[in-house]
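If it is no trouble, can you show me the amino acids of a protein and the tokens describing how it folds?
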Amino acid sequence: MRTARPTRRALLATASALAMVAALAACAQEESEPTPAATGTDDACADITTVTDGTLTVATSNPAFPPYVIKNDPTNGKGFESATAYAVAEQMGFSEDQVEWTFAPFNKLFAPGDKDFDFAINQVSITPQREQAVTFSDPYYQAANAALTLKDSAFADATTLAELQDAKIGVQSATTAQTQVEAQIQPTQSVAVFPNSSNATQALKNGQIDIFVTDLPTTLYLAAVEVPGVVIGQLPGDEVADSWGLVLQQNNPLVACVNQAIRYLQDSEELLDITEQWMTDYSDAPVLG
């Protein structure tokens, strides 16, 4: 028996159906794959306004230390915060050469008023007081505060908060360290406040203070590179003391795009990879009891 041959019309119909199936499959595959800066049904980065058109201006302090910025040059993309800033920028739709860096003192980054940057990244802790003056992104990192002293200090072998009460303790201004020191250590001497980390580190070297309390990664870096120091330990409290956020001018609608980028980096684990690359060696110290 001869088998009926398909007509030309039937062949064309079959080909058309197969093409439609293939197109639908391709669309389904594309929709199932995450796309940069598009974690929801609305793309918050579709129509954004920046300080300079076509450029994303990012602020930090000068000097900036490892592991956050390497060689005090955020433009090289090396260091935790430099790499994070460029990753966020990419998800917002900005190429590396469209990112412009600017510098400001730490406490100026979250002072009230107009900003000449789109966001700042500089280990700025999210606090209710600061939220009255600026807008923060979702957290991109969490860190404890820790106590640094010189190796030959009388406090180098301390293991408890009580053993630090008689120390002269220094902190950087406009950080959460002073509040935590006063509440947890309750020092017998007033806390010395310095305008920046460099001044506090120099005071430690000069013997003006016995202990410098700042975020754990910074204390570990300073002990390894800047001073003959030892990290006594972390100050306790809810596992971590601080959540760091990117800083924007208050009520800047750009925060929606920034948060969308951060969520994408978290969901894709790219932010985890950046953290492990730059912060793993700066995250371990005993917790003081």
